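Recap from last week: sequence in, structure out.
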Amino acid sequence: MARILAALTLFAVIAYGVWPYYTIFRLDTALGEPDPESIAPFIDLVSIQEHYKQGLGAAVDDLVPRDQRDGEPLMDWLADGLQRLGDSALEQAVTVELVRGLLREAAARATDRRPAYFMAGIQRAFFTSWNRFSIRLGHLDRQTLVVMTLSTSGWRVTEIRRPGPVYRLSR
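Predicted structure tokens:
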């Protein structure tokens, strides 16, 4: 009985370790499909939008630093308005199509192979915790970091960190 339990435990650990790599394979296949919505099950759009919102908040604070407002209502109002405008613009700009474009672009930058498959651009893929998995596409000077998080529906992309201006939202 102990052998069976040990074998089942070993199988569960191996299956759990392989699971994010299988998700990467399925994501790579979905990125090759003509329909952008084919990647929707593999991304958490709300988390990706939240990641960009945090960066936008930092950019607004850099533009209108809190310590230079000196309690001026006009400066507070301006900063709050910029934040609200940015949040609504991000919700409209960060879509499944944009995420698909970002992932395809990262793969194209990371590999010379054409067509540029997502898996071909992976330099390193590793667990950062039991429920977070990071994928590094490309070399250190031009790398894109894709973070997947385990949710109730499986492993899903929750962050995309690009080189250069981090929060540039071009297509």
